[in-house]
Design a protein that fits this description.
It is a single chain. The chain has 2 domains: 96 residues, Ribosomal Protein S8, Chain: A, domain 1 (2-Layer Sandwich), CATH 3.30.1370; 96 residues, no CATH class. The chain has a 4-stranded mixed β-sheet with strand order 1-2-4-3, with helices on both faces. It is an alpha+beta fold and 197 residues long. Helix 2 links the parallel strand 1 and strand 2.
Length: 197
């Protein structure tokens, strides 16, 4: 173990270090592992982490496939709200500052709001007003994100909206302004997600 490795072990520990160099993955395997690990570490609120890629000295033609894959992956993860910043730590590793979970949700919302993105709510919720449906959609997205589903298909979002509606509506008191009470319950659930972030 080098002195640099010893300092890295002290600074990051095993929990906050992904060593891709040790298993010699292909570029595609490295991308899958790194993305899944970064997302998991973001949910665990790990903060700053170390991704070890190696320098590619043993690679065919001397091309650092894993390192180049991670260099391409990190900006995409930044756009998706997973990574806040990153920098080269050594010739074979990167320090990655993970974004807050709130940033992840904000990135999801901004992608959903892109021009041309068609959002159609489930027909079963058609009787609810637009504000209530929007709040249910936000709650469904946060719920799915908490489960590790970051770019869900619209059908999955619909199912989660209906499931959240059914759970909250079943707990509402009879009579009165049921939709206003439902919307308040949805907003309370959203605030609970924000408090966890």
């Amino acid at each position: 173990m080098t002195i640099e490795s010893a300092f890295d072990e002290l600074r990051f520990g095993r929990e906050r270090t992904l060593n891709l160099r040790s298993s010699l993955p292909t570029g595609a395997e490295a991308a899958r592992r790194a993305e899944a690990w970064l997302r998991e570490r973001q949910m665990a609120k790990a903060g700053e982490v170390l991704v070890v890629t190696g320098r590619g000295k043993g690679s065919v033609g001397g091309v650092a496939v894993v390192r180049e894959t991670v260099v391409r992956l990190l900006p995409r993860m930044e756009q998706r709200g997973v990574v806040a910043a990153w920098s080269e730590h050594t010739a074979g590793s990167f320090v990655v500052q993970l974004a807050s979970v709130r940033k992840l949700y904000e990135a999801q919302r901004s992608r959903a709001a892109l021009p041309g993105a068609v959002v159609v709510d489930p027909p079963t919720l058609g009787a609810l007003d637009a504000h209530t449906r929007a709040a249910l959609r936000a709650l469904a997205m946060r719920s799915l994100g908490a489960l590790g589903v970051y770019a869900p298909a619209e059908a999955l979002v619909h199912d989660e909206m209906v499931a959240r509606f059914a759970t909250l509506a079943a707990a509402l008191p009879p009579g009165g302004a049921r939709e206003a009470t439902l919307r308040a319950a949805v907003e309370h659930a959203l605030l609970a997600f924000d408090d966890d972030v």
